[in-house]
Design goal:
The structure is a single chain. The protein has 160 residues and is mainly beta. It is globular and about 60 Å long. The protein contains 2 helices and 8 strands, in the order H-E-H-E-E-E-E-E-E-E.
Length: 160
């Protein structure tokens, strides 16, 4: 009997609405490079945050949002939403994680997305990644890979 395994099969993800998202306000602190006063970072992170607001950087260029947990966690789902209603641009983001008792961040993924309003204005990503003993999760955003003056924006980041 031939031993065989089928590869490259899609992982079955539960609907986003069925996930039990972490209450980051009580489990972690957030570190960030900048924020616009009208769109603070917690607008994108809190479960009861203003869903119409989200976070916007105070200046153009690469930005970092880092979630540092009080106690190591296991994370299985990362949900991101980016919106751009005004400017055509290609954004790149990188997700990195730091395991407890380690001092080097490991890259989870790197992705680019082209916003082209008015038709392509929203990017929603749902990643399944079993991260055990997660101490910190870092999101790096390059809002315009061509070096334009775009400010980074994040509508929503949820972890489960």
């Amino acid at each position: 009997m031939m031993r065989k395994i089928m590869i490259d099969q899609a992982v079955e993800k539960p609907p986003i609405s069925d996930l039990n998202f972490l209450d980051l306000e009580h489990l972690a602190q957030v570190e960030f490079t900048s924020e616009c006063q009208e769109h603070p970072v917690e607008s994108a992170l809190l479960l009861n945050g203003d869903s119409d607001s989200g976070w916007v950087a105070a200046s153009a260029g690469e930005q970092i949002i880092r979630i540092v947990f009080d106690q190591p966690r296991t994370i299985e789902h990362i949900v991101l939403r980016f919106d751009e209603q005004q400017q055509s641009r290609t954004q790149e983001f990188v997700l990195l994680w730091l395991m407890d008792k380690e001092n080097i961040y490991q890259e989870i993924l790197r992705q680019q997305y082209h916003f082209s309003p008015p038709n392509t204005t929203c990017e929603i990503e749902h990643y399944h990644a079993k991260l055990k003993q997660l101490k910190a999760l870092e999101l790096r955003i390059i809002p315009d890979i061509e070096g334009g003056e775009a400010c980074a924006k994040l509508k929503k980041l949820r972890l489960a």
